[in-house]
Design brief:
The structure is a single chain. Helix content is about 25%, strand content about 25%. It contains eleven helices and 24 strands. The strands form six sheets. A nine-stranded mixed β-sheet has the order 10-9-11-12-8-13-14-15-16. A six-stranded mixed β-sheet has the order 19-20-18-17-21-24. A three-stranded antiparallel β-sheet has the order 3-2-4, with no helix packed on it. Helix 8 links the parallel strand 19 and strand 20 (about 350-355).
Length: about 450
Amino acid sequence: MAKVTTRYVCNSCGYASPKSLGRCPNCQAWNSFEEEVPSVVGGKPRAGGAGGYGGISGGKLTALSTVGRREEPRTSSGIPELDRVLGGGLVAGGVTLMGGEPGIGKSTLLLQVADSLSRSGRSVLYVAGEESLEQIRLRADRLGVTGDIQLTRDTRAEHIAALMNEHKPVLCIVDSIQTVTVEGEGAPGGVAQVRDGTSMLTRAAKETGTATVLVGHVTKDGTVAGPKVMEHIVDTTVFLETVGAFRLLRSVKNRFGQAGELGVFEMRGEGLIAVDNPSAAFLAERPVGVPGSVVAATIDGQRPMLLEVQALASKTPYPNARRVVVGLDPRRVDVVLAVLERRLDLTLGGLDIYVNLAGGLKVTDPGLDLAVALAVYSAVVGRALPGNVAVFGEVGLAGEVRSTQGSIRRAEEAGRAGYTQLVVPPGLDGRVGVKSVEEAVKAVWTGGQK
């Protein structure tokens, strides 16, 4: 007699339980369990009962040395910043999951990509699961889209896979994966629906060689909604986020390229426009000759950029001085402040210290330590840094300046931006460098660093 079992699955992380729970023990999400469609367990016994594995023999093995090498063909999206994040362009048969807050520009960016490919003579299939075709036409008119993109409102996974097999488009955009349904798998957007829909579309992409982009909803924590296994199925996962007036596209997983790549865009009336020089964009409003302002060379993911570290010191009216940090790791800033007090005899006890990373970015790079130290010192003593100085380096508890990841790329980015005096750790490309915070202060205000 077949036995019917029921289980409940967390729609946030995919954790399974035989009964519904108020809070997921794995991801701590509340009221996230949904009932899965019952499955039949038992039935007929396996044929050939001999042996501990039911008489089943293993398949064929292939030695790694006999496997051929093949470079996956790529197609340019027409947007260089997007190609950079993807590792060189769209991979034939590759599946990309794009997440981001509602209204951040995911559909806008993908419609621009679809237009670029269709105008070059390539076929594009756009699955509209959340908008009507008329709404997409209105956005296309606003963006100046002239390509002949093939649209469909059919969100059944079997039908989408059939369309991909029949027309074999170069690119298939599914907006969004939470609207895709699989026959007999429960309500749309459920754990089973999202998981099985992703698996079916991924299989179709591999079989047809169609580059596929799945748009995903995000939770209140900013992660892609649905079971975590969905992110394991796809080849690439990218997130679009807002930072000040800019949009950052960041890859967190990439089977065909370097993860951690970063693309910078700006939202305008004609759509998302790539920012070719992020360093100049982030430093465009930097005040010159103001104490407490330091240009720092950092690396976000794999991309070097120049940012402005700001510091402000004021006499505190409170018994305990305040420490306010925005955009940086507060614990690292506390360490730098302790080093300044101990190694440079800088009195900070009666001062409120405010440290800010201008532009709205949040960076945990330890290479910003030296910039924080010089910004705070400049704010306390009231002396501005020269306009041609750029800084990077990690600060240790003994006041020493340590080397950081990507030092050469940081220095090259600063040089391209016209900063001729670099205050950097020793041993970089023939430069003398500074060994301690004390030497860094002397190099800045006495011109000792060359």
